[in-house]
Design a protein that fits this description.
Blueprint: H1 11-14, H2 20-24, H3 28-47, E1 64-66, E2 71-73, E3 80-84, E4 96-103, E5 110-118, H4 125-133, E6 145-149, E7 152-163, E8 166-177, E9 180-188, H5 193-204
């Protein structure tokens, strides 16, 4: 096992064109400079040419802002941010989590996830909500409603299941922006009307 601060290869394997005896003849200072130069070059070479998902620092901010996607909203008060991710510009063929919040003060745990996925504009938002809602055997608990969120077309559906013998509700709001759909997914106990209202109030603050 390689530990931090240890190299997996000797200086001779890193510099295949420098003979071992020639390296040993270098003065101490020159040898150290050579090793530092090679190390920095390797780090830049491996980390400077790739771009992928980034996990910013988790913070309990009063307003969640996503400059890449161009929206912001006010999360439920006193809910704690548990995860956050940012993605480079480009297609999003599979659902990607942007931010997750959890409430630890309610009688039963409650959560709010915000994710995104590219969906053909030919598909209705009701279809998107239904497809996401029934995942993992959560049957619909009511009709899907059409609404407006942040001045854009949206749809909301509620789904139900039992987790560990306890009834749970999943409420999903899908908002469309061109060919991309943003999903606000909340999970809470049926009796937890406080969390339900907190989530709905948060979604209502969505601004583009």
């Amino acid at each position: 096992m390689q530990r931090n601060g240890q190299f997996g290869h000797s200086i001779y394997s890193i510099l295949p064109y420098v003979r071992e005896r020639e390296v040993k003849r270098l003065p101490g200072l020159m040898l150290r400079e050579l090793i530092v130069g090679v190390t920095v070059g390797c780090i830049v070479g491996f980390s400077g040419c790739t771009q992928g998902p980034r996990a910013p620092a988790i913070q309990d901010e009063t307003v969640y802002r996503n400059s890449q996607e161009g929206f912001h909203f006010v999360p439920p008060e006193n809910w704690k941010q548990q995860a956050r991710a940012e993605f480079p510009a480009g297609p999003v063929p599979q659902k990607r989590l942007l931010v997750e919040y959890r409430c630890f003060t309610s009688e039963k745990p409650a959560s709010l996830d915000v994710s995104m996925v590219d969906v053909s504009e030919a598909r209705s938002l009701a279809e998107c909500v239904r497809e996401q809602g029934v995942e993992d055997d959560w049957p619909p608990a009511g009709p899907i409603e059409d609404l407006k969120v942040g001045g854009r077309a949206a749809a909301r559906g509620i789904f139900a299941t039992r987790a560990g013998g306890e009834p749970r509700l999943r409420e999903i709001v899908a908002v469309r922006k061109g060919g991309r759909v943003y999903l606000f997914t909340a999970v809470f106990a049926p009796s937890d009307t406080r969390s339900k209202e907190a989530v709905r109030n948060a979604v209502a603050t969505l601004t583009w």
